[in-house]
Amino acid sequence: MEPTVHPSPRDTSVLTLQAEHRSEDVWGGGMDRLLTCREHVLGLGEWVIHDRVLEFVRLAGFYGVHRLVGGGLALDRSLITALFERWRQETHTFHLAVGEATITLQDVAVLLGLRVHGAPVTGDGTGVCQGPPDDAADIVYERFSRAYILALMGSILFADKSGDAVQLVYLPLIRDLRRAGTYNWGSATLISLK
Questions:
Q1: With 90 as the cut, is the pLDDT of residue 176 above it?
Q2: ∠124-142-73 over CA atoms, to 5°?
Q3: 84: left (phi over 0), alpha (psi -120 to 50) or beta
Q4: All structural domains of the chain with their residue ranges
């Protein structure tokens, strides 16, 4: 005999937003469509990334995020829809049949390759870019690297609903790319998922 799964919460004292939650419509048979997912990384695939630029991207600690773009990040819309239907804003957890789960700092570190130790990242708060010529000075590659890292931040790490805006509050933090690689970007990325 299979155990009975109760899809809705048994105790609504914690999940106070249940009446407005998408799951109410799903369980009532009113919704069966996939969500529309924003894909901010599309424009990043058109950037020309020179090996010398990648050296600075690695130095600043963003190579793992770069790999997401270069690897052709494919979204599984069905999985995203299923997870969205189980996400609870009240507790910041996914409510699954086997229990609650959430995204941890370790998940951010493993999936994005971001540093989760070091100085904190603080602050409030695309377009196509042709790469520098092969014989450019290091300063040109450093500047291009900063522009690319800002694009990664605005498209993947700290994306907002606009899809084409990058908050410049992070620019001072990547002024010195060596120092940028010591910051705790993983915690900043996790907190931006709020």
A1: yes
A2: 65
A3: alpha
A4: 18-191
Size of the chain in residues: 194
**Tokens 């004292």 belong to residue:** 13
Six-digit token string for 24:
């109410």
Contact 150, 83 (CB under 8 A): no
Instruction: Please write the tens of the pLDDT for every residue from 59-75.
Output: 999 898 888 776 666 66
**Cβ proximity of 108 and 117 under 8 Å:** no
Q: At how many degrees (to 10) do helices 51-59 and 63-70 cross?
A: 130
Give CA separation, 23 vs 37, 128, 162, in Å.
18, 39, 26
Whose CA is closest to 125, among 168, 180, 175, 61? 168
Q: Which of 37, 76, 82, 61 is nearest to 152 (CA)?
A: 61
**Pairwise CA distance, residues 57 & 130, whole Å:** 16
